[in-house]
Amino acid sequence: MLWLPVAFLMEFGFGQLFKVSQRRGYYAPLVVSCNYLVLAVGLGVYLMMTGGLSFSPMVIKVSLVTGTAFIGAMSLMTYALERVNVATVLTGFRMAMVVSIVASMGIWGETVSPSQAALLLSC
């Protein structure tokens, strides 16, 4: 739960920075790409320092599938962000996480604690 306030702040910051870049006329795909490039470099450095960086065949396969899905989703989000309000797009994009959580409960039998359920309902 310690990371939850940080995640909220980062999400808020992303939305605000994207809005600033949008108002200044920056190219949206470049803004989003730079955002995730900085995150990837930071995570890569952290994993190298902790010895968690691995490039096994399964990691590469999962990374390719996940990366392809992510790039598609981010392209769609960026396209939408260029056309409608940031709040509308980010709300819809984040609500998609609720669908994923509910699906994982049904498919994988995962459980949700009362505090997690409260967070889900607040979305």
What secondary-structure arrangement, pairings included, does this model have?
Blueprint: H1 3-23, H2 28-50, H3 57-81, H4 86-108, H5 114-122
Helix pairs in contact: 1-2
How would you describe this structure to a colleague?
The model has no long low-confidence stretch (mean pLDDT 84). It is globular and about 45 Å long. The chain is mostly helical. It has helices at residues 3-23, 28-50, 57-81, 86-108, 114-122.
- The H/E string reads HHHHH
The stretches of 5 or more residues where confidence is low (pLDDT under 50) are none
**Helix content, binned percent:** over 70%
First-last Cα distance: 17 Å
Please state roughly what percent of the residues sit in beta strands, choosing from under 5%, 5-15%, 15-25%, 25-35%, 35-45% or over 45%. under 5%
Q: What is the alpha-carbon Rg in Å? A: 17 Å
- Helix-and-strand structural type: mainly alpha
Q: What is the residue-mean pLDDT, rounded to a whole number?
A: 84
Shape: globular
State the helix count.
5
The largest sheet is: none
What is the compact description of this entry?
It contains five helices and no strands. It is mainly α.
